[in-house]
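Subject: Re: docking follow-up (fe (ii) ion)

Dear J.,

Thanks for your patience while I sorted out the input files. As discussed at Tuesday's group meeting, I've set up the holo structure prediction with fe (ii) ion included as the bound ligand rather than trying to dock it afterwards. The sequence and the ligand SMILES I used are pasted below, so you can double-check that they match what you have on your end before we go further.
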Amino acid sequence: MSELTTTAMPIDTTVARYRRVRDATEALAAPLSAEDQTVQSMPDASPAKWHRAHTSWFFETFLLEPGMRGYQVFHPSYGFLFNSYYEQVGSRYPRPQRGVIGRPGIAEVASYRHHVDAAMVELMDSCPSPDTLALVELGLQHEQQHQELLLMDIKHALSCNPMLPAYSPDDPGRAPGRLRSVPALAWMEFDGGITEIGHDGNAFSFDNELPRHAASLAPFGLASRPVTCGEWIEFVDDGGYRRPELWLSDGWALARAEAWAAPLYWLAADGRWEVFTLAGARPVDPAEPVCHVSYYEADAYARWAGARLPTEAEWETAAHTGTDRGALSTDTTIRAPVERSDGTGGSEAVIAAMHPRPVGTRAPLMGDVWQWTQSAYSAYPGYRPAPGAVGEYNGKFMVNQYVLRGGSCLTPTGHARPTYRNFFPASARWPVTGVRLAADR
Ligand SMILES: [Fe+2]
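The structure tokens for the complex came back this morning:
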């Protein structure tokens, strides 16, 4: 597990963290009935109940069975039912059919979680090795990924119900997925040069963020904030979904086949747009970041706007700007973000003519929406997956997908970081995916 590094923590801190993450999953599932937790709306999604069980299976399979003497699995069939994609662990039940599994029900899944939790606490109390603790952390990071997936998947399932039921109707302000309004667009300008990207240090990272390595950048500009719904409406009104010259061939074919006319979850209502959210349907807010767009739509929008999508090296370089881990080497300079975080600065040369708007406060790159990059999801130079079955976690998916950066409003607090590489196929629309523009300089 040399690729999975984590800062050593006292055991009681690890146990407390374990309980916090596990409890957070249960809190997310709490508003959902047994029926809600059983439904599966498409092959890419999984029932909420399955997420709760699968995250427990991960601890059982990779920590308790190999590492705890005398551990008894909760049920002999669960290894088959709740293995997601680990070929080296054994066969598994097909993902597209997870929604037909009525039993185990949610009470049995809760018992499964309790069984695993009790054993995990015992394991963590038994002076585990650093490698074991690193695996515990991987299991927790894995569970946090599934917390976002649980919300993405239930949102899709609820959206398929003509009644458009809300996940959290009583308190829409606290429903996960509430987006913040963003300021006016400005451009951050960067000179080219040699930069470094990838994780370093002792804090946790996934293996796909390693190793840190050099990357060469040409001069580029990066938008200070994601594209908004208001801007997306301009794209729609300008025939963005009807103009093949804006689209990649595969994207155009899919958009035609599925009759795309707006982002997923947008609903035309009496001449205006509404959007389905976890708090129910409401009017589209022009000031919030657009989300639930595919790579194809993001790319078409960028072309329409006279821009392009950023590479992941550009995105990460910009995300590190102003931090003490500044990613640019000495032969490279940043010509100044439009407005520095300390309120000083600004540059005469940085306001792009493409979208002449008032200069606003520079928005952070993290949060709100995952941002499509034009970078294919592939191995960094020198990448080595972890040995054994857990090495299937990331590496075997490095084909036919694009990297997304930044985290979203559904990502658990503290889970994402500037080097974090999320990935989805170009067609995916059900993640909280948005757009940040880039441009050549
Ligand atoms: Fe998983």
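A couple of observations from a first look. The first strand starts at residue 187 and ends at 190. The two ends are 42 Å apart (CA to CA).

Let me know if you'd like me to rerun anything.

Best regards,
T.
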